[in-house]
Specification:
The complex is a heterodimer. Chain A has four helices and nine strands. Chain A is elongated. Chain B is α/β, with parallel strands linked by helices. Chain B has three domains: 161 residues, 3-Layer(aba) Sandwich (Rossmann fold); 160 residues, Rossmann fold; 194 residues, Thiamin diphosphate (ThDP)-binding fold, Pyr/PP domains (Rossmann fold, 3-Layer(aba) Sandwich). In chain B, 42% of the residues lie in helices and 16% in strands. In chain B, the strands form three sheets. A six-stranded parallel beta sheet of chain B has the order 2-1-3-4-6-5, with helices on both faces. The longest helix of chain B is centred in the middle third of the chain and has 16 residues. The radius of gyration of chain B is 24 Å and the shape is globular. Classes of the chains: A alpha+beta, B alpha/beta.
């Protein structure tokens, strides 16, 4: 089972390390982790996606709540939230596959953000599933470099909590 | 006023009377400043023991223990002590000196990232970079260490911060931590649920853990048991919360516990775990415990509830508070049949002397040899009975711990040991802290010759500060518990367990100027124990135990 933890933490030195360290120490998985600022300078926001059985997922929430740097933990499933991930991928192209790549980008809503004589960089911001589908379309292409941000998530509008 | 003065003043504001520690350059401003106050300092001989002594002190006084050491190796030596305290939820504030803040991160002399190293076994840690933060941090640290689920808090203070001026020192009266608000009062609905379930239950049992001591709830729990005639068992950490001879007490549970205690747990239809972690040593197969019974789990730490076993009724709150509420309620139930059954279990196993002799003879028969030395279970039993009623018994780790926890007779005293971590060498330094915290009490530490040699340097501390701790060394010249494990699991293929018969404890005692006594066999035991306990004076009692003894 997958679960998303949206965590507000005190913006203090070492807080990322302390929070991620908890997962390490307790043998919890981190599928992805993103950290960023919020509108409050003293508060940072972390989104951690983890997977495990029901008890593990509950323990994660409890152990996070126990951390003295953690202000609030919200947990939700993917269906309850809007999830976005940013992908940057640099590929090598040639005359024969250039159009296929551009077509795929158009179909999937990805953008070409940089280009040279034989490389192009594609950006895509979408759900993790669609990002993965798009990655599949690039299987036949020679990939130079890939980076994905991990999931940013927020509960849907009008959902309680 | 400088940063060090602010730290020391904060300790005064917190009512700290003793600091256990070891100075070094990076903590010298602190140790200079402390001379201005009435706080007593104890120079321990190795930093790990500063934490153990602070732990013993905290456990007997209920206050937060304080250990203060220098940077680098001083700080890293402290780690085992901090981890030991963390596992047993002992309230402690540890202050470590740190190199100059401008130098931090560049691997200068005696630099160690101690807050990073300790992250997974402190309740919280601070690095102070601004001296103006000191009063707030100190106030928070003591609050965090001593409330909720208690535990160690680390404060790392670079030496230049200790020397920086603090212009306005004001010790805060309150703590404002938006992220930390431990639940004290148990939820009223859950409390009622527990009582209602007790009325439905036919075979309830209460299992007390270390949390009962930590919240000072022993009296309330006892009152509840007496009032409603509910049988009770204990984990090792909960020992001495209930007197051993209490008619409703059915001993310690777990793989080293009483058979009738475990039978009671297995036969129950309702188990109330009180301040216990439901950990692997006391409950085998915690996953299945709630299959056949109603499991109530009372703990101040919500994360403990459901960690190892999913309870039917979770109840988060301070145990003393919860039992005060329980005691206000009327419970209509009669467990006479159940108690009769448990007494039957107890009677079956009760002729302990005969059973032990039988086991011993059995061992002699199978191993074809004669045991020399004392019979350890009998010795522990007699020792604990000869001790003052309210004496403190500090058990070390190893076979001696198993003999201690299963044969110690609790009356009004306290039993302490390193339960979660199982840290060898804990007993002597912890006992020093206990005796300092409660000088009027008789304090007896019991260890093996392995654990003794891990922290024996603290005998010097005992002598120097005139701390009359009594130390029993069960000497069997081997690492007994490992030997026993290799006996059962590796078919007597013994590896790295021989300690040899050195050191000569008589000469050790002489070297430190400590009274020395020896018991070589059962016949000498009674007189030896009496002589050992008669004076309030630091004493080593060497007790010969056969290396082949099994516990």
């Amino acid at each position: 089972m997958k679960r998303i933890y949206s965590i507000l933490v005190e913006n203090r030195a070492g807080v990322l390390c302390k929070t991620a360290g908890l997962f390490w120490r307790r043998c919890f998985n981190i599928d992805s982790i993103t950290v960023g600022e919020t509108d409050d300078r003293d508060v940072s926001s972390m989104v951690i996606v983890s997977s495990g059985d029901e008890r593990t997922l509950e323990q994660i929430e409890k152990q996070l709540n126990k951390k003295l740097d953690v202000i609030k933990v919200k947990t939700f499933d993917e269906s309850e939230s809007i999830n976005r991930e940013l992908l940057l991928v640099k590929v090598r192209y040639n005359r024969s596959n250039r159009h296929d790549i551009i077509d795929n980008c158009q179909i999937m809503g990805a953008q070409i953000v940089d280009m040279s004589r034989n490389q192009m960089m594609i950006q895509m911001c979408d759900t993790p599933e669609r990002v993965s589908i798009f990655m599949d379309t690039l299987k036949s292409v020679s990939i130079v470099e890939i980076t994905r941000t991990g999931v940013l998530a927020m509960t849907k509008c009008n959902e309680p909590g | 006023m400088n940063g060090a003065d602010a730290i020391v003043n904060s300790l005064v504001n917190e009512g700290v009377e003793y600091v256990f520690g070891y100075p070094g350059v990076a903590i010298c401003p602190f140790y200079d400043s402390i001379l201005q106050t009435d706080i007593r300092t104890v120079l321990i001989r190795q930093e790990q023991c500063a934490a153990h002594a602070a732990s013993g002190y905290a456990r007997i006084t209920g206050k937060v223990g304080v250990a203060v050491v220098t940077s680098g190796p001083g700080a890293t030596n402290l780690i085992t002590g901090i981890a030991t305290a963390f596992m047993d939820s002992i309230p402690m504030v540890c202050i470590t000196g740190q190199v100059n803040s401008q130098m931090m991160g560049s691997d200068v002399f005696q630099e160690a990232d101690i807050s990073g190293a300790c992250e997974s076994f402190v309740k919280y840690s601070y690095i102070i970079r601004n001296p103006a933060d000191i009063p707030r941090v100190m106030k928070e640290a003591f609050h965090i260490a001593g409330t909720g689920r208690k535990g160690p808090v680390l404060i790392d203070v670079p030496v230049d911060v200790q020397n920086m001026p603090v212009r306005h020192y004001a010790y805060p009266e309150t703590v404002n931590l938006r992220t930390y608000k431990p639940t004290v009062a148990g939820h009223a609905v859950q409390i009622k649920k527990v009582i209602a379930q007790l009325e439905r239950a036919k075979r309830p049992i209460i299992c007390v853990g270390g949390g009962v001591h930590l919240s000072g709830a022993a009296q309330e729990v006892l009152k509840f048991i007496d009032k409603n005639d509910i049988p009770v068992v204990s984990t090792m950490m909960g020992l001495s919360a209930i007197p051993t001879e209490h008619p409703l007490f059915y001993g310690m549970v777990g793989n080293n516990g009483k058979p009738y205690g475990n039978l009671a747990m297995n036969g129950a239809d309702m188990v109330i775990m009180v301040g216990a972690r439901v950990a692997d040593r006391s409950i085998t197969d915690p996953d299945r415990i709630s299959e056949s019974k109603v499991l109530v789990h009372i703990d101040v730490d919500p994360a403990e509830i459901g960690k190892n076993a999913g309870p039917t009724i979770p109840l988060v709150g301070d145990i003393r508070h919860v039992f005060e509420e329980f005691n206000k309620m009327e419970l209509h139930a009669d467990y006479t049949d159940w108690i009769d059954r448990l007494d039957g279990y107890k009677d079956d196993a009760r002729n302990a002397k005969r059973r032990r002799m039988y086991e011993r003879e059995d061992a002699i028969r199978t191993q074809r040899r004669v045991f020399h030395g004392v019979n350890p279970p009998e010795f522990i039993r007699n020792l604990s009975l000869a001790m003052k009623e309210d004496a403190v018994y500090v058990a070390d780790v190893g076979q001696n711990q198993m003999w201690s926890c299963s044969n110690y007779i609790a009356r009004k005293g306290r039993f302490m040991t390193s339960g979660g971590m199982g840290t060898m060498g804990y007993a002597l330094p912890a006992a020093l802290g206990v005796k300092i915290g409660a000088p009027e009490k008789q304090v007896v530490a019991v260890c093996g010759d392995g654990g003794f040699q891990m922290t024996m340097q603290e005998l010097a501390t005992a002598v120097q500060y005139g701390i009359p701790v009594k130390l029993v060394v069960l000497k069997n010249t081997v690492l007994g518990l490992v030997r026993q494990f290799q006996h059962y699991n590796y078919k007597d293929r013994y590896s790295v367990i021989q300690l040899g018969d050195k050191p000569d404890l008589f000469l050790i005692a002489q070297a430190y100027g400590i009274r020395y006594l020896k018991i070589e066999n059962n016949e000498q035991a009674a007189d030896g124990i009496a002589a050992f306990l008669e004076k309030d004076e630091a004493t080593i009692l060497e007790v010969t135990v056969d290396p082949d003894e099994l516990c």
